[in-house]
Give the backbone structure.
Amino acid sequence: MSVAAPPRPAPAPDRRVPEQKAAPPRSDGWRWYTLLGVLVGWLVAWEFLQGKQTLEIGVSENTDFHRWLNGIRDDVDAARDDNWFLQYVIGGISDALDWTVETLQELFSVPAFPRPVPEVGWLGVVALAVLAALVFAGVRIAALVAVSMLAFGYFGYWEESIDLLIITGVAVAICVLIGLPLGIWMSRSKAATVAITPVLDVMQTMPSFAYLTPLVLFFGIGPASAVVTTLIFALPPLVRISAHALRSVSPSTVEATTSMGSTSGQMLRKVELPMARRTIIVGLNQTTMAALSMATIAALIDGPGLGEPVLTALQSLNVGDAFVSGLCIVIMAIMLDRTTTAISERSDASARARQDPRLRRIVLAVGAVLTVVAVYLSRTYSRFAAFPDSPDLGDPLSNRVSRATNSFVDTFGETTDRFKDFVSFELINPLELRLAESPWWLMAGVLVAVAFLLGGVRATASTMICLLIILGSGLWNETMNTLTTVLVAAAMVMLLGVVVGVWMGRNRRVDSWIRPILDALQTMPPFVYLVPALALFSTSRFTAIFAAIAFAAPVAIKLVADGIRGVSPSTVEAADSAGTGRWQMITKVQLPMARSGVVLAANQGLLFVLSMVVIGGLVGGGGLGFLVVSGFSQREDFGKGLAAAIAIVALGVMLDRITQHTAARYGRVTTR
């Protein structure tokens, strides 16, 4: 998940009022008693009905729906040369993207025949990147870019790193061409907002894995499919944030400009876009990070880049190589994040006014001259074209990590195994037994009842539709297995979120220590989280859960902390003066009043966990994620893999709608 769109912080209560109180309405108490009754009734019924009508199918068994999907794949393959849409539209887009990526690769990363090296060697590429950072982001970011680019080469992954930058860059460029006009349209048209918002909701709710299989059907595997997958996943943040930025432009400024006779186009170019520029660049930052995350996962469909060595290392259980290639991904994520953030800050007029324009022109002129020289040298001399083999930092680091991992496993292996076994046998297996071994109709009824009691009628309608889709996919039992893993991981995430979030929310010094760590963890693409999980627990279902917890915990912790900090200081002071103890303050005052932040944390935690649990199919997570991967690798399992992707989407939408409507119902705060 799920890099998903940036979660919205919990709204702070109005501090102008002297006292606030949390609202669960007393009349809603019957819902909780009914919910308890539903759960107890389900457990009692399970004792008598377990193992019956579970809709479990064999590993190699395909349903009629799976075979129908295989037939569609065969029909698409057969019609590629005859169908004008597949040949000229889809084929044209695919060819254009392949040509763009391959041209950029020959320019910067791979040999350009008949040259044994790219058109621009490593020295020229580094110089061009540093100059771009200098122009748009400043001296500090230029230094960061230089160090990062050199690190890619010295760690032994120069070509793969540049390929990943190419895929990410092409996808982001297309996102800007599509997303900015859509954002402008949504900011000016309520009808466009109503039509586009549900599409963006589905795009952001879908775990990243679910994009891969259907796109492979039309674009095949390779650079084109990787770019399309990446841009679809990365597009929603830019569209949403651009629309929000343009709507937030001061109405008085717009009215004044209109009264002076400005046309709609002039208003957009001279007023709205300049005033919304900083926020739009924040959207570009989110889109860039989402694109990097998805471009890495696109290695599963033969997308070039750093995802390939990570995937190879994970498949061979080579923790050292996985760590080094994953480290390069982290370095790239930090570089891109800091660069786009700096561009956003420099877009502020006051920030530009503090600079000496004459000094800046001199620095840029010198940088441009040095860049031209560097590009010339990289095209002329081989030592400046192919990245040098020494010093080699990658192999020694890989060997050290492998030795350290082996030493850690030898020392603490029994402890980690006991912890893994405890979670597996005491939490995962009992819950899975009850979810997956319940009759499908009983489990569906329980989920519908939970949706109604927590989220209301709209959540119930969404849940019923999603359950019908899951039934139609023919993978009900596998979906319940995945739901088990998601619920266990989400419970642990919320436990961490509440404990650490309350600690941060009540102590600003602790917040100042922990928040930068959480920010850094949120920068990392999800693929990277599999490396430490694999090192600690080898391949198992718990490995996927551990990676999901590490991936989802930062967002949950920050949302809870922001919710606790948003509680009215006057209310806290009044409770403190009444002699309320620390534990009572947390449980009776702060957590109830921060309920909106806690429920939002649960929503985002669930979605992040689902996206990571599915990726965990690569390291023994099983469930729907494993079936998606199997659909890529084995032609006869394509239909089953596509059905698994459909089931993942339905499961994600169902969990999202239940938690969103629950947040809307129980996350409100009333005042008196």
In short: Residues 1-26, 668-672 have pLDDT under 50 and may be disordered. The chain has three domains: 29-46+57-61+398-671, 96-119+155-354, 120-154+357-389.
